[in-house]
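FAQ
Q: What does a multi-component entry look like?
A: The components come first, one per line:
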Amino acid sequence: NAGVTQTPKFRVLKTGQSMTLLCAQDMNHEYMYWYRQDPGMGLRLIHYSVGEGTTAKGEVPDGYNVSRLKKQNFLLGLESAAPSQTSVYFCASSPPGTVNYGYTFGSGTRLTVV
Amino acid sequence: AQKVTQAQTEISVVEKEDVTLDCVYETRDTTYYLFWYKQPPSGELVFLIRRNSFDEQNEISGRYSWNFQKSTSSFNFTITASQVVDSAVYFCALSASGGYNKLIFGAGTRLAVHP
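Then the predicted structure of the entire assembly, as tokens:
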């Protein structure tokens, strides 16, 4: 089925460990996004990409890095995990243009940092 | 600055009651899009509706209806005859034109429908 696939779905990290979350989409969308969801705060944009090889900071980028080496993949990295990064992470993609046709979201990654 | 406010943190109703979820947004753009998403206990985000700023018609889809009022910058969501399956967190979101379709979410409203 076409869509956005996030891996892994669950992960527990120790403080200071590193990891990479993978987001893959097969809809040929130009735009991709990483959000984090925390209780009472909705979803907040971490980083986004408007095309292969491009990335930009969102609202809460500190402590994260991203890469978009291939159009279909958008990677989110945590170099040194902190308990404050315990969250649910969602990836999304959308086609480009002045008309916003909407988004496709992944199913989320639940990350716990202990 | 752009902002979405969902002032209701939690709402609790009994089945068959009608319930309205409020959403107030702020943007200086004349072209923008508003969305509602449902997040059931399973955690995924379910798209409910998309509305652009030039279309102020209210919309009804089954038990769901949306009231878009530009004059008050509101995009409220009403569930008629609520059911237990409506229990979820509901998010209102805004995307302004020219912003690479970045979505700005409200904090969400948790709806609990009791039998």
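Q: Is there any commentary attached?
A: Sometimes. For this entry: Chain B has a mean pLDDT of 94.
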